[in-house]
């Protein structure tokens, strides 16, 4: 973003749409901690006001409104999470190319969190590996500033592209989220199992938490538990809830084997 056109937004401006010419809201999908059978937190996912998918809204985002949209998403997610009584972690996707100066651009987020008494250590910011980042040093600066403030950080869709390991070499987030390209049918695929086994060895060495996303079957969950993963997200547990917080059915949890593993070092919370 051109520094000359940069203007920090207030929480009130973000709540009112930050000058955007379209409206949007959020759906929430849970992260499940199978070691305790509880919900670790929720990811906020952008949706249209009439339940249109994320693509419908993201298609309206361009270079001229990217910053305003990114800021409004954060405040909208925190506001809805607070209204719904969300407990645990709130995960928010952010657009690194929309942020000019992280220490300034985070002001509206902090203001919203303070107004709603939503602790910053319960907020996690995810950047997708597929996000085209033209300046990796800028991204690491953003991550470092977020960590200094007390936010949790995550690399989303890890394994979906080619930049994940490069990002990991530059900055170590609190969590990586294994993309469904790696987790899909892993219980029947020795190659994917071997790749995940190697990723887990790296994460243990670096003391990083791992969340497996895109889980659709109990077999996938069990295979990944055997690799030391306890945090999961996917349709097997719950689909995103439009402006509400889905809960996990006991019948779903009964299909897997909740347990603690020595390999799962990252403590939720």
Which features would summarize this protein structure in a list?
alpha/beta, TIM Barrel
Molecular structure report:
The chain has 269 residues and is an alpha/beta fold. It has a single domain (3-253), classed as EAL domain (TIM Barrel), CATH 3.20.20.450. It has eleven helices and nine strands. It has helices at 11-15, 54-58, 66-84, 102-105, 107-115, 136-149, 164-170, 180-183, 190-206, 218-226, 250-253, and strands at residues 25-33, 38-47, 89-93, 123-128, 152-158, 175-178, 209-212, 231-232, 241-242. Helix 6 (136-149) links the parallel strand 4 (123-128) and strand 5 (152-158). Helix 3 packs parallel to helix 5 (107-115). The longest helix is centred in the N-terminal third of the chain and has 19 residues, at 66-84. The model is unreliable at 1-6 and 260-267 (pLDDT under 50).
